[in-house]
Amino acid sequence: MKFFVDTAEIKDIRDLHATGLLDGVTTNPSLIAKSGRQFKDVIKEICALVPGPVSAEVAATDYEGMVAEGEVLAKIASNVVIKLPLTLDGLKATKYFSGKGVKTNVTLCFSANQALLAAKVGATYISPFIGRLDDINVDGMDLIHDIRAIYDNFDFETQILAASIRSANHVTQAAIAGADVATIPPAVIYKLADHPLTKSGLEQFVKDWKSTGQSIL
Ligand code: G3P
């Protein structure tokens, strides 16, 4: 399973990239607004830092506008993935970019039928939003299972990018459900390594090692 980080904060991306765990980055207009920085500058900086796919979302909502903006974003770097909303115009723009060999990430997916349409127009990634479904008392993970089954039935190559991940358990469940990628907030990625028994076990090992008076070096 690939790990993308869902942020526009350069420091977090740099730190996570250094761990060797990071396969790519996703951003969205809300994360760009939170960063307080110029969108295209941020994308350029992220692309120079991370060799993997970097999703940059169009702001337009009409087909012509999405195509025009996507063309600009695609020129920023070769690893830019054009992120488009799951609307009919967004799907049409996805078809346009996939026909040109430009990678796409279709976002704001909340149903299996929407995911089916994204695969039919050749999306590189489909982003089902787990947390936002959970927020309205619908099990977001059921959607990942359904999309996995549909894509496998027809050998669709579109990759399932589990998004709106809010907890370490979401990561586990998305992996079990067969998501190809999880895009995860930095704080949740760090939590994945934590376990109280690891912490206490290591403290004991350090203490016992000191008591031997030995040195490996
Ligand atoms: O990038 C899209 C998605 O991950 C947003 O997550 O927590 O705002 O629902 P959230």
Describe this structure in words.
The chain is of the alpha/beta class and 217 residues long. It has 11 helices and 8 strands. Strands 1-2-3-4-5-6-7-8 form an 8-stranded parallel barrel, surrounded by 7 helices. It is globular, with a radius of gyration of 20 Å. The mean pLDDT is 98.
Q: Measured on Cα atoms, how large is the radius of gyration?
A: 20 Å
- Give the domain tally: 1
Please describe the biggest sheet, giving its number of strands, its sense, and whether it closes into a barrel: 8 strands, parallel, barrel
Identify the bound ligands.
Answer: SN-glycerol-3-phosphate
CATH class: Alpha Beta
CATH superfamily: Aldolase class I
Number of DSSP strand runs: 8
The string of secondary-structure elements, in order, is EHEHHEHEHEHEHHEHEHH
How many H/I helices?
11
Q: Could you tell me the strand content as a percent range?
A: 15-25%
Structural class: alpha/beta
Write the topology of this structure.
Elements: E1 2-6, H1 10-19, E2 24-26, H2 29-35, H3 39-49, E3 54-57, H4 63-74, E4 80-85, H5 88-99, E5 104-109, H6 112-120, E6 125-128, H7 130-135, H8 140-153, E7 159-162, H9 168-177, E8 181-184, H10 186-192, H11 196-212
Parallel strand pairs: 1-2, 1-8, 2-3, 3-4, 4-5, 5-6, 6-7, 7-8
Helix pairs in contact: 1-3, 4-5, 6-8, 8-9
The structure holds SN-glycerol-3-phosphate.
